Amino acid sequence: MTAAESILAGDRLALSRLLTQVENGTPEGRSALDMLFKNTGHAHLVGVTGAPGTGKSCLVGQIAAVVRKAPNGVLRSVAIVAVDPSSPFNGGAILGDRVRMRDLAGDPGVFIRSMASRGALGGLATATAGVVQVLDAAGFDLILVETVGAGQSEVDIARLAHTTIVVETPGMGDDIQAIKAGILEIADILVINKADRPGVENTERALRVNLELGYPNGGFHTFLESGHITPEPPVRMEEDSLWTPPVLKTVAIESLGIPELVHAIWAHRKYLARTGLLEQRDRERLEHDFEILLQERLKADWLGSTDEAKKEQTLDLVYQRQLSPGQAVDRLVR
Amino acid sequence: MPEKRIRVLIAKPGLDGHDRGAKVIARALRDAGMEVIYTGLRQTPEMIAEAALQEDVNMIGLSILSGAHMALVPRIIDLVRANGQNEVGIFVGGIIPEEDVSALLAKGVKAVYGPGTPTSKVVEDIRSEFAAG
Question: What is the model's pTM?
Answer without folding.
Answer: 0.88
